[in-house]
């Protein structure tokens, strides 16, 4: 290291910094060290300052329990800085506004908080923002967990609160304060809908603006937000001048919602659509086929002697076989085909735009594929198995969903009765004929 960058050099930077710097004990919130700007801003001596803690200096940090919650939030923001607007105590008994960035540093194996506090009384633009906002807004800015925005329509200027910036992974000096910054951050697939919702409110058709959408973060990833706003100022003719809103991060609840939806519609073992969701999917496919005059082949597949597999190798091995079958079919079938778990060891396969002859050929190929690829257990043991299938086709056998399933089921029953490992096609009169395979 060059001589110039000695300890004294860093000390000079620390002391010369135009913002207050505090080194804080994450456990107790005690001030361990601070630069000259810190104690002069607070109107006290350095010695006096070192007797204080964040709890005694920061308005609104009530007690150790409250501090522990704040400390947890700071750790959760690591490696980025935790930012907030707050008020610092002055020796004279008054408070002044500050914008504080706190990051976690490590010194001699111990975590420490490093806070850089900018005195907003000295920062003209921020002071302006503070003075022009009404009390409610100032309160929300200080206290809200949600991000806040304030749009002045004629200038197109948008104030983004530090909390909102933090939510999106930006630092306080980042994010151009314009409407474009916001609209560009809204996901392409949501933008039209969100803008329409905003227009509905601005035009007076809706009482307030509300939308759920995805917002791009600084690192390019997206979060889900619930955004709600309202016109808070109008001109004499009633035209909106200013709109204020709050953004709440709902990524976690969206994730849970998706998970629940997935669990409700999918079989947990194979990941295939379950019977309930399969019915809905089937009826959509059938409507599509009828509307566009296409054939749709329905195939009920049942694994042969599956009970023997469970009895010989155990239930877990049976589960592995079911997963193996679903996996093998998934990689073999076309994207437009869909395989669902219809029951225990029974599957329903839908083949859109497929005539009976091609369907039989395809199922024959699936059989060959299965014969060449037995299931392999964790122990390395291989299990060969076969299936039987019953086919029915729309419009050949019926145009009704339940009737198609019944035809396929009857054909499957006969296939089982005729020795298994067989494909049978229903005929229009309900009498099954041997498949072409
Ligand atoms: N391991 C496992 N077994 C299942 C599951 N669902 C159903 N089964 C079993 O599958 C077996 C089906 O038995 P059966 O209906 O007699 O049919 P099979 O032995 O395949 O005989 P055929 O269909 O006539 O060829 C039963 O023992 C069920 O307990 C599952 O999710 N996992």
From TrEMBL:
Domain of life: Bacteria
Enzyme Commission no: 2.7.7.65
GGDEF domain: residues covered: 294-428
Annotated InterPro entries: Diguanylate_Cyclase, GGDEF_dom, Nucleotide_cyclase, PAC, PAS, PAS-assoc_C, PAS-like_dom_sf, PAS_fold_3
The reaction(s) this protein catalyses: 2 GTP = 3',3'-c-di-GMP + 2 diphosphate
Cofactor(s) essential for the protein: Mg(2+)
Domain PAC, first and last residues per copy: 209-262
Record GO terms (molecular function): diguanylate cyclase activity
One Pfam family linked to the record: GGDEF
Gene3D superfamilies in alphabetical order: 3.30.70.270, PAS domain (3.30.450.20)
Ranges for domain PAS: 6-55, 133-205
Protein name: diguanylate cyclase
Organism of origin: Amphritea atlantica
């Amino acid at each position: 290291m060059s001589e110039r960058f000695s300890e004294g050099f860093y000390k000079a930077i620390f002391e010369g910094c135009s913002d207050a710097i505090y080194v804080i004990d994450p456990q107790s919130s005690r001030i361990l060290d601070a630069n000259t700007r810190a104690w002069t801003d607070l109107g006290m001596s350095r010695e006096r300052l070192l007797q204080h803690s964040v709890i005694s200096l920061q308005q609104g940090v009530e007690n150790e329990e409250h501090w522990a919650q704040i400390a947890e939030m700071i750790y959760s923001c690591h490696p980025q800085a935790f930012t907030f607007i707050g008020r610092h105590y002055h020796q004279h008994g008054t408070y002044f506004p500050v914008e504080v960035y706190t990051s976690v540093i490590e010194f001699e194996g111990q975590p420490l908080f490093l806070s850089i506090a900018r005195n907003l009384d000295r920062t003209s633009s921020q002071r302006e923002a503070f003075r022009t906002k009404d009390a409610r807004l100032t309160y929300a800015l200080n206290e809200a967990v949600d991000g806040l925005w304030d749009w002045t329509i004629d200038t197109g200027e948008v104030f983004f609160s530090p909390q909102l910036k933090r939510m999106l992974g930006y630092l306080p000096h980042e994010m151009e304060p314009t409407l474009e910054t916001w609209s560009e951050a809204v996901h392409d697939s949501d933008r039209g809908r969100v803008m329409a919702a905003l227009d509905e409110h601005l035009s007076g058709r809706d009482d307030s603006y509300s939308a759920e959408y995805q917002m791009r973060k600084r690192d390019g990833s997206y979060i889900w937000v619930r955004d709600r706003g309202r016109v808070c100022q109008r001109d004499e003719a009633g035209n909106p001048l200013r709109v204020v809103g709050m953004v709440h991060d709902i990524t976690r609840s969206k994730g849970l919602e998706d998970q629940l939806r997935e669990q409700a519609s999918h079989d947990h073992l194979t990941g295939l659509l379950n019977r309930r969701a399969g019915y809905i999917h089937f009826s959509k496919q059938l409507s599509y086929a009828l509307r566009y005059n296409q054939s749709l082949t329905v195939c009920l597949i049942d694994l042969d002697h599956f009970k023997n597999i469970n009895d010989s190798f155990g239930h877990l091995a049976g589960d592995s076989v079911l997963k193996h079958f679903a996996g093998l079919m998934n990689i073999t079938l076309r994207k437009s085909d869909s395989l669902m778990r219809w029951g225990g060891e029974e599957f329903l396969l839908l083949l859109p735009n497929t005539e009976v002859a091609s369907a039989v050929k395809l199922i024959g190929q699936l059989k060959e594929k299965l014969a060449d690829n037995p299931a392999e257990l964790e122990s390395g043991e291989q299990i060969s198995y076969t299936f039987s299938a019953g086919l029915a086709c729309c419009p050949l056998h019926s145009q009704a969903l339940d009737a198609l399933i019944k035809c396929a089921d009857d054909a499957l029953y006969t296939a089982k009765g005729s020795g298994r490992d067989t494909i049978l096609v229903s005929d229009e009169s309900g009498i099954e004929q041997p498949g072409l395979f």
